[in-house]
Amino acid sequence: MQTNPKHIGIVACSYEGAALCYRTICNEGSDFMGEHSHPEVSVHNHPLSGYMNFIREGDWEGVAGIMLSSSEKLYKAGADFLICPDNTIHQAFSYVAENSPLPWLHIANEVGKMAEINSFRKLGILGTKFLMEGPVYPEVLEKRSISFRIPSSENRIRINEIIFSELVYGIIRDESKEFFLNIIDELKSEGCDSVVLGCTEIPLIVLPGESPLPILDSTRILARAALKFAIEGLQNRE
């Protein structure tokens, strides 16, 4: 029987998204473990610039190499399992999973589970251009027979610009917020019943009470899944 919570290792990519994931684990840990309590958490972060050099070239094995470097450091720090609060670099997940010293939770899998729980059948996907045009969510959603839509090419470019010039630095502009909300409204008009905030910084600018559609906040969904996995078995202790 598990006697202590599992040690969570966070492989960070962009620091704002990783910070939100970390805060969620710690803040919500108290709900299950008591006042001021949460599982042990370690974070390792290579600079985003290193990731972007490989992403722009479509070199996902290069991305995987950086993720595995963080994995090894977190393994040596005592982590029991790993998460990455960055949707885009999950395109390298197959390379990572084959060579990682520790097991992982997959962010899109956790979002897919939550979509099923809520009976969502057509998801709008927001994220980086690489994420919206890539295989991370299509592969997961196809297995669950869930359909999806992405914004137009022009809007994908603008979303990507806002993410990398504003959100990764924690900059929130009113005009950018309005743009995101308009995009979500367009996805609603195309029949989407929910929207995936598939960049871990988008929850900083799109809030649940403001969105025209129910949101699937990938950052917090992953954090909560990690928290649940870390403490499973503890609540039934004598």
Would you give an account of this structure?
The protein is α/β, with parallel strands linked by helices. The chain folds into 2 domains: 8-106 and 221-231, Rossmann fold (3-Layer(aba) Sandwich); 107-218, Rossmann fold. Helix content is 50%, strand content 12%. The chain has helices at 15-33, 48-57, 60-76, 93-99, 107-117, 129-132, 136-143, 153-165, 174-189, 218-231, and strands at 8-12, 41-45, 81-83, 122-126, 147-149, 194-197, 215-217. Strands 5-4-6-7 form a 4-stranded parallel sheet, with helices on both faces. β1 (8-12), α1 and β2 (41-45) form a beta-alpha-beta unit. It is globular and about 50 Å long.
Determine the strand fraction and express it as a percent band: 5-15%
**First-last Cα distance:** 11 Å
When the domains are counted, the total is 2
Average pLDDT, rounded to a whole number, is 95
Strand count, sense and barrel status of the largest sheet are: 4 strands, parallel
User: Major sheet: order of its strands?
Assistant: 5-4-6-7
Pick out the low-confidence regions.
none
CATH class of the largest domain: Alpha Beta
CATH architecture of the largest domain: 3-Layer(aba) Sandwich
Shape: globular
Write down the secondary-structure element order.
EHEHHEHHEHHEHHEEH
| Whole-angstrom Rg | 17 Å
Class of secondary structure makeup: alpha/beta
**Strand segment tally:** 7
- CATH fold label of the largest domain: Rossmann fold
User: How large is the count of helical segments?
Assistant: 10
Percent in helix? 40-55%
